[in-house]
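Readers outside the structure-tokenisation community will struggle with the description of the input data as it stands. Showing the layout once, in full, would remove most of the difficulty. For illustration, here is how one protein appears when written out as sequence plus structure tokens:
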Amino acid sequence: ILREIKEPLLVFGVGTDYSERGHAGQTVAVADAQYAVPNGLNLYGALVDRYTTHNFGIYTQSPTGASIGTPDPAVANRPTNEYSIVGEVGYVFNNRIEPYARYEYMRLQGTPAGSQNYVQAITGGVNFFFYGNRLKLTPEIIYLPKGIPIDDGPTDVFTSSKGKGEIMGEVQLQLLL
């Protein structure tokens, strides 16, 4: 059984990371908050910001590994600032089932020239809890209204240069030993 919330819960978090490669560096910062109430309602929100000193393109995936895409010449080797926002709402029933909905918006710089520079994702799913949170099954459907401007082959998300939508489904099983 999941731990029941006896009174309203509000949690804030912040974090940052700096990394560099050659003469290019990036700082990633995140601030998030979660609010939950005893009746089962859960709200979550996050803001993520990525600042680069010399934009070196966006990481892409291929069947043989990760690579760096060619950035738009307008931002190549220049400082850039990208951000994303996430909002999620869920409701726990009987301490075992939690349907949820999530919206994500990511503003990108360094996408291939002529492509869109943002990604939106609308997700709906359900968490099924077995043995408390020790075993959790999560099927979900993700809708990308305008597609995505870069390929990410291993996740089966492919470039949609014409702004066409894409629907994906995935299932995740988590086991805590």
Notes: The longest strand covers residues 9-21.
